[in-house]
Design goal:
Layout (H helix, E strand, L loop, with lengths): L2 E4 L5 E4 L7 E3 L6 E3 L74 E6 L10 H27 L7 H23 L3 E8 L2 E8 L5 E7 L5 E11 L2 E12 L5 E9 L12 H16 L2 H5 L5 E4 L5 E5 L2 E6 L2 E6 L3 E7 L2 E11 L4 E8 L6 H12 L2
Antiparallel strand pairs: 1-2, 3-4, 5-6, 6-7, 7-8, 9-10, 10-11, 12-13, 13-14, 14-15, 16-17, 17-18
Helix pairs in contact: 1-2, 3-5
């Protein structure tokens, strides 16, 4: 049975009973502490419910009076904490340079990634300008010779403009590419159990900007991915992860585009930062799941157009188009998702060209906190 006790800093900790009587380090204040032998050992043991969050959570329609059990990877245990990985789940390389440490505000860090490597320093402006000037002269001269030969027969006055304009354009384009290529701009990102943060250094290591998002500031996440094709050829996938507060205001957005027809971009793509952020956000919500449902409460999931879904113990309520459907878990045969469409199948549902009854379809992108919704389905309805 896990041992729960409180550090002198006030942090409630939970560890496996095999660590009873051993020394450890508090992950919050970093002080050395001794883990009690049992619940009543040494007066260090206290069992207290976590403090409720300020405000009302829209996914919770009833409060709880009990303490939920700890979640894997989402408590502050001293034991069994998995090693830090990249956002894509890989091993962090020894030469990865995290030029700013993870802030304590985001809690315990799950994953991290940096585009900077150790030993890489900014190239001074003198060298960049000198290289750009030489490249401009060389590219303009070569382009001028080629254009001159092509337009020498017959020679026209307007050819002078082309002879000057084309080499100049090519030279300036080469300069722009060199300045971009030799520029110094890197990011390092962290995902924690309380929030995420992105640091960017531009020009030099000390010029750092910060984008931090704490989960407590939002109540809902909506995600979406759109695959694009041109004449039947895949051209890329756009993604968007948007968190909003109780008034519907956008709190934080992670968006971008990647090219991977198989659906998984390369490990260094920022898409993995967004996916890891969604995963941490879902664990953050799951920590309240037992609290919400302990007294027959219901979880609330908003849909577009004012529609919504509620989940309780062995009960799903779907309000769509002004109609309310109450489905006990015993009347639900299965849930499926294909091509971005989530479908709820009642027992005895029929699907065909002329008959389609007992099947309730919802766009996955329309479900607020969609990943949390799928996990809650499994826990509350066993689906």
């Amino acid at each position: 049975m896990p041992i729960t006790f409180t550090c002198t800093c006030g942090k409630t900790l939970r560890v496996a009973d095999e660590y009873a009587g051993k020394d450890g380090e508090c992950p919050s204040c970093k002080k050395a502490i001794r883990i009690p032998e049992a619940a009543g050992d040494g007066g260090q043991f206290t069992e207290q419910a976590p403090k409720p969050r300020s405000g009302s959570e829209p996914w919770a329609s009833a409060p709880s009076k009990t303490t939920p059990p700890p979640l894997p990877r989402d408590d502050d245990s001293l034991a069994d904490i998995p090693p830090l990985t990249t956002h894509a789940g890989g091993v962090i390389a020894p030469n990865d340079d995290f030029f700013v440490e993870a802030p304590p505000e985001i809690g315990r860090t799950y994953s991290a990634f940096s585009t900077l490597q150790r030993g890489v320093e900014p190239i001074n402006w003198g060298m960049r300008i000198a290289a750009s000037f030489m490249a401009f002269v060389a590219s303009a001269f070569i382009t001028g010779l080629i254009v001159g030969v092509l337009m020498s027969q017959p020679f026209r006055v307007e050819a002078i403009l082309v002879l000057i304009g084309v080499p100049t354009f090519v030279g300036l384009s080469i300069v722009a590419i060199i300045l971009w290529w030799t520029g110094f701009s890197h990011t390092c990102t962290y995902v924690g159990n309380k929030g995420i943060v992105k640091y960017t250094c531009s020009g030099h290591r000390d010029n750092i900007s910060t984008e931090m998002f704490l989960f407590e500031d939002a109540i809902e996440l909506r995600t979406g991915q759109t695959r694009h094709y041109y004449n039947g050829v895949y051209t890329g996938t756009d993604y968007n992860f948007t968190w909003t507060d109780e008034k519907g205001r956008v709190i934080h957005t992670l968006s971008g585009r990647y090219r991977s027809e198989q659906g998984i971009p390369v490990a260094k793509d920022p898409f993995h930062y967004a996916i890891m952020a969604e995963w941490a956000w879902t664990l953050y919500l799951l920590s309240d799941l037992d609290q919400v449902t302990a007294n027959d409460g219901m979880l609330f999931f908003g849909l577009k157009g004012g529609d919504y879904i509620q989940l309780g113990e062995n009960l799903l309520v779907l309000v769509k188009g002004g109609q309310t459907l109450r489905l006990p878990g015993t009347k639900i045969e299965k849930m499926t998702m294909a091509n971005g469409v989530f479908a709820i199948w009642e027992i005895g549902a029929k699907e065909g060209w002329f008959v389609n009854s007992g099947i309730h379809q919802i766009m996955y992108a329309d479900i607020g906190n969609a990943r949390f919704f799928t996990m809650a389905l499994e826990k509350l309805l066993g689906i």
